[in-house]
Amino acid sequence: MSLEKLRKVLPFAFAALVTLLAVAGCQSASPEASPTPAAAATPAPSAASSGVAPRDQVGVELFVMSDCPFGRAAEGVLYKASQALPGRIDLDIKYIVDAETKDGETKFQALHGPSEIKNNRVQTCIGLLQPDKQLEFIDTFNTNSKPWDVIAEQVGVNVKDVEACLEDGRGDQELIKDAATVDRMGINASPTMFVGGEPYQGPISSLDLFEFFCEKLGDRAPDQCASPPDTLSRSDGATAGQCSDAAAGDTPQVNPEMIDPIKIEHWVVYPADAFTQGYEQVVRQTATFFPNAEIKTYSSTDKRGKELIEKYHLDILPAFIFPKKIEESKNFTAMGSLLVPMGSEDDRVYVLSPTRIGANYHMSRPKKEDEIGIYYTPYTQTALAMLLDVISVLQDPQYAKFKNKVQFRPSTLVDQEGKLLANNGPPEIEELERHIAIMSKGMDAFQKYLVVRHKNPVGTYWEDYVREAGLNPDEIKTIATSEETESTLKEYSQTRTELGMPPIVAFFVQNREVAFVQDKDQFIELLKFVEKH
């Protein structure tokens, strides 16, 4: 699947069939957490700390697994940050591998298997031969499906030289050194980063890295540091998780016993005017478990799509419909909790539970064309970084016309008795109320608060952050504890609970669709979509 199509797949939705698979290795981290090196590790000397790098550079060591999605994301944002600071980053990429030499022959092992070892070798050789091209090659390779030699030629790397390096073992010798380093330092998480020889503990996004590098450069910082380019973002980072070789592996394996050759029809009805079209993922999984299924997809505006919506009273799309014959499948018992019977006894069908798979388009809700609600939990760096990016986009004259369409809605969950529930208890609910109070003082004040707050969203000395934003803590507390604020928070939270929105941050588009927006670029895509629809 292309990168653009991947961007349209909901990460929080369509997880139901995945529960039939076994996944390990790449793990989601808490939203506030950045991949962190072993606490007792002593970093190897970086180019900056050893005096190799010129005084006007900052040394960066990045430990990665070349096939780890979180490591690749870190490489991507690091490339963007380094492009914004040309010549100021002295980068050393090391690969997390195991190497065992016996009788003069070295065997490598990597979490993601032979493919990762191959990519490690290629990227290492490029780093040896043309270090100024290494990160550009990696970023281009990671976002394309073309062979490495095609990408190498595209970015100006000499393919014959790389092939010679692979042949004569220079790359392997460097990987042996990497294996010894990661073993000595106890590093097994991709990505792990050191800046100036010190562990980097902050958010891994292009804008956060840019600001941190500028801070490290101090009075040697270039003019660019005073005005970060618009290409940088706080929401394009790799804070979602890490790959660790402490786990068994991260390639989903299908249980052969779950595959049934039964011949059935399978109908999929998807929303015609949705920003996020994620039904393809479930279709692929269905084809895996039912290889002889005849899968037919219909738009909600197609004649057949309309018939299915009316006949089975479909309210939430996409809808995945199986015929009664699926009862004969050996998968039926295992999938029972995911299937909802619909229709009469004579015309029984089964639909994958919308709530279990995270179906995201609500047909019965009135469409509000000029509204984008952002429901978020403020106790996470991920959410606050996304909000900062949203605000920065809306400050661009090109997108200023959307300002009144975007509504920030701090929210949590509500239990059956109407009581607010939050992972971190009362302190988190109080922070939710403060956000509503601060927004009442204007978006400039809200942005200033987010800037100082996003680096420590769970800090208890909230008064200091409020003062830094130029506001009076007593006044904010009075507004935050008012009945009006409490009512607003309950309203937002009730909507979030009813619609089963994902945790951290969710975009609710035109009062109908819970859309997948992961970074600044996707938010811009969403604005353009709303303008057309």
Number of helices: 19
The dominant shape is globular
SSE-based structural type: alpha+beta
As a percent range, the share of strand residues is 15-25%
Alpha-carbon distance between the two ends: 26 Å
Low-confidence stretches: 1-16, 18-25, 27-53, 247-252
Strand and helix map with partners:
Layout: H1 3-6, E1 21-22, E2 26-28, E3 58-64, H2 69-84, E4 89-95, E5 98-102, E6 105-109, H3 114-129, H4 131-142, H5 148-155, H6 159-168, H7 170-185, E7 189-190, E8 192-195, E9 198-199, H8 206-217, E10 241-244, E11 253-254, E12 265-270, H9 279-289, E13 294-299, H10 303-311, E14 316-317, E15 319-323, H11 332-335, E16 339-342, E17 349-352, H12 354-357, E18 361-362, E19 372-376, H13 381-394, E20 406-410, E21 413-414, E22 420-421, H14 426-439, H15 443-453, H16 462-468, H17 473-480, H18 483-498, E23 505-509, E24 513-515, H19 520-532
Parallel strand pairs: 3-4, 12-13, 19-20
Antiparallel strand pairs: 1-11, 2-10, 3-8, 5-6, 7-10, 8-9, 12-15, 14-18, 15-17, 16-17, 19-23, 21-22, 23-24
